[in-house]
Amino acid sequence: MSKPIVWTIAGSDCGGGAGLQADLHTLADLGCHGCSVVTSVTAQSSVEVTAVERVGDSVFLAQLDTLWRDLPPVAIKVGLLADDVQIRLLAEWLSERPLKVPVILDPVLIASCGDRLSGSDGADSRFDPLLPLVTLVTPNGDELAALTGRPIHCAADVTQASRQLLARGARAVLAKGGHFEPFSGRCVDLYLDGCGHFLLDGPRIDTRNTHGSGCTLSSALAAFLALGYPMEDALVLTRAYLHAGLKQSARLGQGPGPLARTGWPQKFEAFPAVPLPGSAMEQAFGFDGPYGEAIVPFVPCDTQELGLYPVVDSLEWLERLLAQGVRTLQLRIKDLTLEQAEPLVAKAAAMGRRCGARLFINDYWQLAVKHGAYGVHLGQEDVVAADLGAIAEAGLRLGLSTHGYFEIMRAVALAPSYIALGHIFPTTTKQMPSQPQGLERLARYHKLLAGRWPTVAIGGIDQQRASSVAATGVGGIAVVRAVTQAADLTRALEQLWSAFESGQGAREAAHAQ
Ligand SMILES: Cc1ncc(COP(=O)(O)OP(=O)(O)O)c(N)n1
Ligand SMILES: Cc1ncsc1CCOP(=O)(O)O
Ligand SMILES: [Mg+2]
């Protein structure tokens, strides 16, 4: 398969630690083809910058036009722009093209001519022409202060300044926490757009070798977007990539060394936490939310491997499946009132107990608690409305739906009993707002969580696909139609069980890591 093309529009760092050299290293490391539009040439090493010279306007535009004709990008990263003329030229060039690709702007504030383009309020307005044209702007604390003319003293200042950039036309802001430490030992980034916000929190890595970290961040983000990840997942992956690169960075010259290029992020420890709305960190940034600090971990499932997991909508189906020996199942009924659902949930819970089965109730968590089901399954929207404390205190297990890296890390913050990963293949059972994840991503998600949380794959899994799903190592396979539309239920279950067994080796390998 051909590699996605990503452009970096940036300055050259002959030392190779920052600028377009850092970008090209990053893009290659993450499986993209990098094209570079040089804005300026800098003479620099790890200890000094001795010269900066902008390229002429015609060669700047010629690079853009030439690439556009033959190598159109899937994503663009913009780094050092030499001056306001270059910023204006790029803004015009972008606005004249039918570009429908993400553009990440790292607002580097060194200008070759040394000028500062401040408005009367002290805000540096040089990037204003670009703000509405880019998908995301990624200032660090110093840049945020300079761009807005507001000193940043605390987390709430970060939120206010980011809002100011939105009001000035930015579509989204990632306020990076690398240069600013309101929480001791932590590095917390704020993402904010017109629809909402989230924080990404991780330990601060104790190293001097941070040369080019902003360049690496923005180019890694462009790469993950080019590879088809939605913004929130791409940001989580980018943080994990930065963490690993900083951890393994090494000095090369006399000054701060560059980040290491460590390939696809895999280690759970590298991934950022997503603080829950209402946590102390969220409050410090000025946001309220439904969760307090004390999330009680949910009772674990009695196994890491939930195995074959049919999801059905009637007591008749539960009865048939229990009679066939199925021991993990879910009652998923829709559109009934609590009163209408109650007798069904009560009977289902009793049937599950009688057979020693893991019977999960979808959505109707109050009834599951009241009637002592084995567990509850909730989606991303359901979880906000549910009383998680009541479910945990009642000793019920909690399964959570996720649809990518961001939701996985948010689910982790809730310490559930298992994490469902979906939808893997296209499904007609439910209208899904997200794209099918596919087997490669499923394998990555499972590897990330293996040994920490039981995993369940769901969506479009049938007898033919079950073996390849099992080969990812995932510990549970949830199915609707593969069971409810089977011509011969006994045979369908045998095929699904045997496919699950075939994944034993992969599961052992994932757990051993
Ligand atoms: C095992 C399992 N995984 C995912 C889902 C989907 O749950 P949710 O996102 O809450 O959507 P609905 O099922 O309520 O439509 C599930 N039910 N089970
Ligand atoms: C409820 C649900 N959540 C994600 S996919 C899905 C439906 C899975 O059904 P099927 O196994 O028939 O594709
Ligand atoms: Mg639900």
UniProtKB/TrEMBL annotation:
Q: Which UniProt keywords apply?
A: ATP-binding, Kinase, Magnesium, Metal-binding, Multifunctional enzyme, Nucleotide-binding, Thiamine biosynthesis, Transferase
Q: List ligand-binding residues for 2-[(2R,5Z)-2-carboxy-4-methylthiazol-5(2H)-ylidene]ethyl phosphate.
A: 427-429, 460
Q: How is the cofactor bound?
A: Binds 1 Mg(2+) ion per subunit.
Which InterPro entries does the record cross-reference, listed alphabetically? Aldolase_TIM, HMP/HMP-P_kinase_dom, PM/HMP-P_kinase-1, Ribokinase-like, ThiamineP_synth_sf, ThiamineP_synth_TenI, TMP_synthase
The segment(s) forming the Thiamine phosphate synthase/TenI domain are 313-483
The protein's required cofactor(s) are namely:
Mg(2+)
Q: Where is the signal peptide?
A: none
Residues holding Mg(2+): 363, 382
User: Which annotated residues bind 4-amino-2-methyl-5-(diphosphooxymethyl)pyrimidine?
Assistant: 330-334, 362, 401, 430
Q: Which SUPFAM superfamilies match?
A: Ribokinase-like, Thiamin phosphate synthase
Q: Name one GO molecular function term.
A: phosphomethylpyrimidine kinase activity
Kindly tell me the pathway this chain contributes to.
Answer: Cofactor biosynthesis; thiamine diphosphate biosynthesis; thiamine phosphate from 4-amino-2-methyl-5-diphosphomethylpyrimidine and 4-methyl-5-(2-phosphoethyl)-thiazole: step 1/1
Q: Which residues form the Pyridoxamine kinase/Phosphomethylpyrimidine kinase domain?
A: 13-259
Enzyme group, top EC level? transferase
What the entry lists under PANTHER family is as follows:
HYDROXYMETHYLPYRIMIDINE_PHOSPHOMETHYLPYRIMIDINE KINASE THI20-RELATED (PTHR20858:SF17), PHOSPHOMETHYLPYRIMIDINE KINASE (PTHR20858)
Described function: Condenses 4-methyl-5-(beta-hydroxyethyl)thiazole monophosphate (THZ-P) and 2-methyl-4-amino-5-hydroxymethyl pyrimidine pyrophosphate (HMP-PP) to form thiamine monophosphate (TMP).
What is the name of the protein in this document? Thiamine-phosphate synthase
